[in-house]
Write a structure and sequence with these properties.
heterodimer; A: about 60 residues; mainly alpha; 2 helices; B: about 130 residues; 2 domains; elongated
Chain lengths: ~60, ~130
């Protein structure tokens, strides 16, 4: 869990920006936008459980 | 301790190139770095809070103030974390809203303390 999550997100980010540039220069604007949207949703799917887990732990610890 | 610093530095180096065109991935990287770093300290935090709850037993009558104190610390941490992330992402307005909401929650939690102080002063006739 620790560090490879950051590497995965960075990899997806770099891949999406490269793909976006390629698609943009070859004239397919919509696909570039769709690729960046898909990358963003994928990253959100990875990160949101951790955020929820963190806040749930804080709530349990501090008995809020 | 070194692990936390190294994770933070790695995350910043990975987020820097992404900040230029794909801002949202940089924000995702900073969020997840923050979560990992606080995750390292979570079990130590649990021990500290367990010790604080031990101390609570000796206070007797005033023991529920420790509970309120812990709640305030928790609310502060969550509000601070949320607002700093929004500030990094560039939305200062949302960050201020989160901080303002945190302040209101703290005031609402700590009302019993204020009332008990006033009662103490009134009864004590100081």
């Amino acid at each position: 869990m620790t560090i490879n999550l950051i590497f995965k997100i960075a990899a997806v980010g770099i891949l999406v920006s490269v793909l976006g540039q390629v698609l943009k220069h070859s004239g397919r604007e919509e696909q570039a936008f769709l690729v960046s949207l898909a990358g963003l949703i994928l990253v959100l799917l990875w990160v949101v459980p951790y955020i929820e887990d963190l806040f749930e732990t804080i709530q349990r610890l501090f008995s809020i | 301790m070194i692990k936390a610093a190294v994770i933070g530095i790695i995350a910043v180096f990975l987020a820097a190139p992404l900040k230029k065109d794909k801002q949202q991935f940089a924000t995702a990287i900073t969020i997840c770095a923050g979560i990992i770093i606080i995750g390292l300290a979570m079990n130590k935090l649990g021990d500290v809070i367990y010790q604080i709850k031990e101390i609570e037993r000796y206070l007797g009558k005033y023991s529920d103030y420790i509970e309120i104190l812990l709640k305030v610390i928790g609310i502060t941490y969550v509000a601070e974390f949320g607002s700093n992330i929004c500030k990094d992402a560039g939305c200062g307005a949302v960050a201020n809203q989160i901080e303002f909401f945190g302040k209101i929650m703290i005031i609402s939690v700590s009302i019993p303390v204020v009332t008990s102080v006033i009662e103490l002063v009134m009864d004590g006739g100081i």
